[in-house]
Amino acid sequence: MLSYRHAFHAGNHADVLKHLVLVQLSRYLGRKEKAFWYIDTHAGAGSYALDSAPATRLAEHRQGIARLWGRKDLPPAVADYLELVRGINPGATLQVYPGSPDFALWTMRAQDRLRLFELHSRDVLRLREHFERFGTRAIVEHGDGFAGLKALLPPPPRRALVLIDPAYEEKHDYERVIHALKDCLQRFPGGTYLLWYPQLTRLEAHELPPRLKRLPTSSWLQVTLRVRTPAADGFGMHGSGLFIINPPWTLQTTLAEVMPWLVEALRIDEGAGFTIDSQVA
pLDDT digit string (tens) for 261-273? Predict the structure, then answer.
C-alpha cells in the first residue's frame, strides 16, 4: 500500500464507475437537511494531472474518462458525473481528473464535513494542500484509514457516507476490508458504505464478492463493470465492482439505466459486461 500511487490509474474505467456511484450517493444523502460526513479511508493526492509522468505511463484514462469526454448521448447520471469533471477542466481539453474527495465536496452542502485519510507520505502532503482552504470542513489525516474509521464512527451527526478504496496490492487488504466493514456495522449500522474492489484472476479477488454478501447487513447492492475478457496470462484488471451497504432506494433503477450504456462506451472486447445484484430489507 505504501508504494501504490493512484496517479498511475486516475480516470480509468474503475474510477468512472466508482465516482459515478459516489456522486449518486452523496446527492441522495444531501436530500435531507441534516448534515452528514464523508469519510475516505484511502483518499489519494486530491487531483491528478493527466499529462504528468505517472498518468501518461499507463494512460489508463484513455480507456476510461476520455471515452466519455466528447459524447453527447449521456444518460442523466453520467452527465451529472461528467459535468463535475468538466468543472475542473475549464477548457475543451481533458487535462485533470479529480479524486474521490473532490466529487464528495462538490456534491455536499456547507453543513457537511469531510474526513480524509492517506498513508502515502507524498500524497498526503498534496492532499492537505489541495484542501487546506476549507479549514475544519475538510480534515486530512496522515495515517491508516482502516484504523481511523474506528475513531470516527459513529459520527456526530449520525449520518455518513464512507468510501473504502484500498489498493489491494497486498493479499491482506482483502481480509482488512471484511473486518473493517464488520466493525463499521457494529459501531454504526445505519451508515452508507461504498466499497470498491478490482476484478482480477487471483483467488482473493474471486472470493471477496460472496464474502461481502454474507456480511451482517440486510440491505446491500453490488454492481460490477467488466471491460474486457480476463487475460490468458492472468495479468491486469479486467473490471471492478462496488458493494454498497444501505444504498438509496433510487440507486438500482439508476444503475439499470446507466450500466448497459456504460458497457458499450467502455468496452475493450466482447468480454465486456455488467452485473447488478441486491438485497433490500
Answer: 999 999 999 999 9
Return d(Cα 198, Cα 162) in angstroms, integer.
18
Separation CA 54–CA 175 (nearest Å): 29
Got the DSSP string for 164-205? E-----STHHHHHHHHHHHHHHHH-TTSEEEEEEEE-SSHHH
Catalytic residue, candidates 15, 40, 102, 165: 165
Burial zone of 140 (CB within 10 Å; 0-12 exposed, 13-18 middle, 19+ buried)? buried
Which of 46-60, 98-112, 138-152 has the least mean pLDDT? 46-60
Q: What is the pLDDT of residues 139-196, one digit of tens each?
A: 999 999 999 999 999 999 999 999 999 999 888 999 999 999 999 999 999 999 999 9
Q: How many residues does the chain have?
A: 281
pTM for this predicted structure: 0.96
Round to whole Å and give the CA distance between 161 and 159: 7
Known active-site residue 173 = no
Q: Where are the alpha helices (DSSP H) in 70-223?
A: 76-87, 100-106, 121-131, 145-152, 172-187, 203-213
* Nearest-angstrom CA–CA distance, 146 and 23: 22
Contact 240, 166 (CB under 8 A): no
